[in-house]
TrEMBL record:
InterPro entries: NAD(P)-bd_dom_sf, P5C_Rdtase_cat_N, STEAP_metalloreductase. One of its GO terms (molecular function) is oxidoreductase activity. It comes from Liquorilactobacillus cacaonum DSM 21116. This is Oxidoreductase. The keyword Membrane does not apply. It comes from the Bacteria. Residues 38-74 form the Pyrroline-5-carboxylate reductase catalytic N-terminal domain. Keywords: Oxidoreductase.
């Protein structure tokens, strides 16, 4: 059992939390107005990118030795037409630069809450797959172990530089759903 702290009480935070609970972990949630006390060994930033930047800056001392999952897709929500991080970079890399020693893992950003709850992508019956990118292999392994029994498939997508591509996929998927080209219970699936 692992203690998991989730910053964010929205649909994604709750769906991710439900999966950790299903896999026999203890989950606590922190909302935007809550006081931050002790946090778990695995921390999930289930908030928009700008809020994630604020959290890692304000909580740097508490996050320095933690596994921190960044689920953000740094979308410009005014235009829905671009990412707000430097070209060639990613939100995850920007967050990692804020706190030395933080074990940033990009994950869950290519999933919608509905697919995390149903464990399936749309009507295809393809098992929902969580892709993880990080330079910390031990952090990815810890997340895989903590999700064992959740019903999700988890795949190591490589080093943190792969977060750039994961965020591009997440961005594309979100814009397709927002334009009603796919449903919010659909998205991209991985077939082996």
């Amino acid at each position: 059992m692992v203690n998991v702290t989730i910053f964010g009480k929205g649909n994604m935070g709750k769906a991710i939390g439900d999966n950790f609970v299903k896999a026999d972990n203890k989950v606590s949630y922190i909302g935007s107005t809550d006081t931050v006390g002790d946090i778990g060994d695995i921390v999930v930033l289930a908030v928009p990118y700008t809020a994630a930047l604020e959290i890692v800056t304000k909580q740097a001392d508490k996050l320095a030795d933690k596994i921190v999952i960044d689920i953000t897709n740094p979308l410009n929500f005014e235009t829905w037409d671009e990412l707000v991080v430097p070209i060639g970079s990613s939100a995850a890399e920007q967050l990692a630069d804020k706190v030395p020693g933080i074990q940033i893992v990009k994950g869950f950003n290519t999933n919608f809450a509905g697919t995390l709850l149903s464990k399936e992508v749309g009507e295809s019956k393809i098992t929902t797959t969580v892709l993880l990118a990080s330079d910390f292999d031990n952090a990815k392994s810890a997340i895989v172990a903590a999700l064992d029994g959740s019903g999700l498939k988890v795949i190591d997508a490589g080093g943190l530089k792969r977060a750039h591509e994961l965020e591009a996929v997440g961005f594309l998927q979100m814009t397709l759903a927002a334009n009603e080209n796919i449903s919010w219970t659909g998205g991209f699936g991985i077939i082996e």
